[in-house]
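Changelog note: in this version the structure field was regenerated for every chain. One regenerated record is shown below for reference.
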Amino acid sequence: MSSPKQAVLRPVRARGATIRAIAAMVLREMVTTYGRSPGGYVWAILEPAAGIALLTLIFSVGFRTPPLGTNFALFYASGMLPFLMYSDITNKLGQTVQFSRSLLSYPRVTFVDALVARFLLNASTHMLVHFAVLGFIVFYQRPETTFDFSIILQAYLMAFAIAIGFGTLNSFLTLAYPLWQTAWAILSRPMFLISGIFFLFEAVPQPYSDYLWYNPLVHVIGLMRDGFYPFYRPDHISFVYPLALSATACISGLFLLNRYHRDILNK
């Protein structure tokens, strides 16, 4: 009589091991991304600050006031900062598996750890950059406005959700199809012009505004400006559409990575 087959149990990682793995990967990302160049975090602040200063200089010459309020720097910061945050986090998450390829060979390190570590580092970095840039604008230019921090927080959470969704999906697509990284960069370039950084959604005539509504970043930037300007009441903002889009992309990316990333890495 043959003995019954014994069930094969996979080892389950303790929560502490997961936290240690993520913390180690955050430190590795920090050293790799910001520790090797002399500029480091200084350049992370100067890059968006220089872009906002350039836009402020150019448009203040041609126009008397921005589309909202009277401060050009604050108006363009409310659009450029969340856009750059979304774009950078999405690109970084899209390169996660390739960047952490050597670490993923260890059984205690998963692609989820790598995604979480990369998101935490880049999200916290951008929040510090935003605090520094906006603090400089508020302290030195003293714009006449009142911030609604609850709405601003909602805008940040929406931007994070969209970045996580598309970044996770791009992580698989870039791994499976290396040309996708170049294709995504080309497809994303027009987003800088059509996401509402330079204009208000209400100023776009129909039917173009109907098409523009499907750009999820329009909702993020509109919500951010709602928190920056108490007299601005955008009625085009949807929470369901951007979050549903990001959830679909994130779930699809996680499923595909879980199913195929080992096979692709072992080729």
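Spot check on this record: Residues 1-12 have pLDDT under 50 and may be disordered. DSSP finds eleven helices and no strands in the chain.
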